[in-house]
Amino acid sequence: MAILGPHSVIIFGLLGNIVSFLVYLAPLPTFYRIFKKKSTQGFQSIPYSVALFSAMLLLYYASLKGSNAFMLITINGIGCIIESLYLLFFMIYATKTAKIYTTKLLILFNIGALGLIVLLTYLLSKSSDQRLTIVGWICAVFSVCVFAAPLSIIRQVIRTKSVEYMPFSLSCCLTICAGMWLLYGLSIKDYYIATPNILGMAFGATQMILYLAYRTRRNSEILPVAAAVVDPKDREESNNTGAADPRCNHHHRHDSSNGEVEIKAVETNQINHTA
C-alpha cells in the first residue's frame, strides 16, 4: 500500500524513469566523440560494465518482487539495452588490450557475480520472501557503493578548488533521480530502494554546493602566477641598460615556456587523478 497517496507510486515512478533515462543518455557525447575519432582514446569501459551489472541486478530483484515492480522492470530493461549498446560500440573502436579488459569485466560482473548471486539465493533461501530480502540487501549495498564513487571527484574539487571536471548538469540530474526513487521507494514501502537513494541525494547535493562555491574560479587565476617566472638578475640588468638585450629576451621566453609546461602538467595531473 502506498504511504504518500494513492497516485504517488505512478507519479514518482514515472518521474524516476524519465530522469533515469536522461542519465542513461548522458554518455552520448562521449560516444559521438569516439565515433568521430574512430578510437576510444583514454576512455574506460568500467562505468558501462558496472551500470549494466546494476541494471541486471535490479531486474532480478524486480522479478522476485512481483507487485509494484513495473517501473523497476521498464527502466532497468531499457538501461540494459542502452548499456549493452554502449559496450558494443566501445568494443568496435577499442584497442585489442581494451577489448580483452572489457571482456574480462563482463565475465566477472555480468556472468560470474550475477550468476553467483542468482545461484546462491536460490540454493540458500528457504522461501521467496527470504530470497527477496537477500537480493534487496545486495542491491542496497551495491547502490551505496555506486553512489559513493563520486567521493573521489568531491575530494579533487576541494583540493584544486576547481569544478572543471564535475559538470553541474550531471550532478543535478543524479540528485533529482535519487530523490524521485527515494519517494517511489517510500510510496511502496520498499526501503531497499529508498535507503541508498538518501545517500545518493546527499552526495549529489554536496556536489552541487561545491559547484556553487567554486564555480567562479578559473584557470586564468593561475596563469599569471605560473607565467611570471623571471630571473631577478636578468630583470635588473635589463632595467640598468635600458636596451633590449636579445639574451635576456630569450631567457624571458624560456621562462614563460616553462610556466606553460608547468600549467599543462597540472592540468594533466588533474585529468589523470580524476579518471
UniProtKB/TrEMBL annotation:
Region named Disordered: 233-260
Annotated source species: Citrus clementina
Taxonomic classification: Eukaryota, Viridiplantae, Streptophyta, Embryophyta, Tracheophyta
Annotated InterPro entries: SWEET, SWEET_rpt
Protein name: Bidirectional sugar transporter SWEET
Annotated transmembrane regions: 6-25, 46-63, 69-93, 105-125, 131-153, 165-185, 191-214
Family under the similarity heading: Belongs to the SWEET sugar transporter family.
Entry GO MF terms: sucrose transmembrane transporter activity; sugar transmembrane transporter activity
Purpose of the protein: Mediates both low-affinity uptake and efflux of sugar across the membrane.
GO cellular component, one term: plasma membrane
Top-level lineage group: Eukaryota
UniProt KW Transport keyword: yes
Range of residues in the leader sequence: none
Membrane topology: Multi-pass membrane protein
